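Retro notes, item 3 of 5
We never archived the inputs for the adenosine-5'-diphosphate complex last cycle. Fixing that now. Sequence and ligand:
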Amino acid sequence: MTDQPPVIEINNLHKAYGPLEVLKGVSVKAPRGHVISLIGSSGSGKSTLLRCCNLLEDSQEGDLRFNGEAVTWKGTGHNRRPADPKQVLRIRTNLSMVFQQFNLWAHMTILQNVMEAPLTVLRRDRAEVEAAARAYLDKVGIGDKCDVYPAQLSGGQQQRAAIARGLCMEPEALLFDEPTSALDPELEQEVVKVIKDLAAEGRTMMIVTHDMKLAADVSDHVVFLHQGLIEEQGAPDALFGAPKSERLRGFLSATH
Ligand code: ADP
Ligand code: MG
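Structure as it came back at the time:
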């Protein structure tokens, strides 16, 4: 629906770590059901953008909106913080983040990992959460791994468990930060398949990836970041098929 506001709207975002300016005015939208990929060299600000989006990092200037609701701030510049802790919690629980390093809790079984946040953060009913957790683990192809610990799984299985954990929060959108970068090539594909399935079922996602084939296959829109600014963006066919910027052409030839 064209009259719905985007699930995620980042407008003119500026972020510095002390004196280091990392984002210099970045605007990105994720309409409902769309997949946005963020590409760019190491250090270009991709992870920072996702972390600011999730309010894991403060930003100094610019707006963030979720389903049209603007984040309210207090203070300005380096003193700017979100004003409303309840709003922060609401936004964060609606954006599940999947990290390169899985970040599963080593002392919990896979099922406990997936159930933990819905139980403790959302305070949902245990039996319902368990049924949902088992269903999501099935969906990512590791329904038989409920009772084992993360160390007993391959990297690809651990990452799929992390995706099930994100899904079990029933988020409005998923944020992926290099979800396949820590995996051996043969394990990468099992995670890519899960991400493709999620895209096909109309999930709203923002994906930071070094995998240009994944970005080309799943994205509605691709954003190329260079030194904290959007250097080029567009539909994957145009961006990968006919890149306009010299920097993007250089980046793409270096990643193939
Ligand atoms: P990317 O994900 O595109 O590789 P990042 O967003 O991780 O880029 O980093 C962008 C820049 O910000 C880099 O120069 C990095 O060293 C710096 N940076 C990232 N996180 C921090 C931090 N917590 N403190 C200081 N500098 C940081
Ligand atoms: Mg990064």
